[in-house]
Design goal:
Layout (H helix, E strand, L loop, with lengths): L23 H5 L1 H8 L3 H15 L5 E5 L5 H10 L6 E5 L2 H14 L5 E5 L10 E7 L7 H14 E12 L5 H17 L4 H11 L8 H11 L3 E8 L2 E7 L1
Parallel strand pairs: 1-2, 1-4, 2-3, 4-5
Antiparallel strand pairs: 5-7, 6-7
Helix pairs in contact: 3-4, 6-9
């Protein structure tokens, strides 16, 4: 069994901190990074897979937008068992896509899951019974977000679902600061040092731009979603389900 690589990207002082990107260095430690940085990440992906399987309709597509190296797709395949299904997974990180395709070739899922390296904003979205976006919208330019959510709504069949998890910030400054304090405490409890937290925060500045919960809800409603719920929230992380 291959040993899981530990995230040491920001472990030592850096003379210059480049903007964060999903390059080969990040891909190599991605599972360690995301499990130590996103509270309940495994639980979120597991329940999303169950929800997508529940709402999946024959002869439709499940889109995984910003798929990284395929944790959702692999989880969904396990949940679906012998049922036929089709996932179209899209990510603009070539190292992520290469790793995902390698995982698929080893698991025999290449016929059910197709992986495309491109900007999700250029993707052809249609005939979807489920669309999943995990920690992806926050990396799109703010000006593009509303129109893209509308495209997702249009791509879904009636009764289809949109599952999205995002890092958020609170509109109240006091509560926003409190959530940040407990988030950094979470990261320290998972072994990250003050230096690692600080350097990662600087790398993400102006790259990851979170919205408030209220901004997300307003955007979903404006896109046409009528049934919207928060099914998981932990301080400054939130998972939504939107039903068309």
């Amino acid at each position: 069994m291959k040993e899981k690589k530990t995230d040491k990207i920001y472990f030592s002082p850096l003379d210059q901190i480049a903007p964060f990107e999903f390059d080969e260095n990040v891909v190599n430690v991605f599972d360690d990074m995301i499990n130590r940085s996103v509270p309940f990440y495994g639980e979120i992906v597991r329940r999303q897979a169950q929800l997508a399987a529940h709402f999946y309709m024959n002869n439709t597509v499940i889109f995984d937008l910003g798929c990284s190296h395929g944790n959702f797709g692999i989880a969904l395949a396990s949940e679906m068992g012998q049922r036929d299904f089709r996932i179209k997974a899209i990510d603009n990180s070539e190292p992520m896509v290469i790793k995902y395709r390698d995982r698929l070739s080893k698991s025999g899922l290449s016929e059910k899951i197709s992986v495309e390296c491109s900007d999700i904003r250029d993707s052809d979205l249609k005939n979807a019974s489920a669309v999943v976006m995990n920690l992806t919208l926050q990396f799109l330019p703010v000006a593009d977000r509303s129109d893209f959510i509308k495209r997702i709504h249009e791509a879904l069949i009636p009764g289809g679902i949109f599952l999205i998890t995002e890092k958020i910030h609170h509109k109240d400054e006091f509560l926003d600061d409190l959530e940040q304090v407990f988030y950094y405490r979470f990261k320290k409890e998972n072994g990250y040092s003050e230096l690692e937290i600080s350097q990662k925060r600087e790398a993400l500045e102006n790259v990851l731009v979170p919205d408030t919960l209220e901004q997300h809800m307003a955007r979903f409603e404006a896109a046409g979603f009528k049934n919207i719920a928060i099914w998981h929230k932990w301080f400054n992380f939130c998972s939504f389900i939107c039903v068309k």
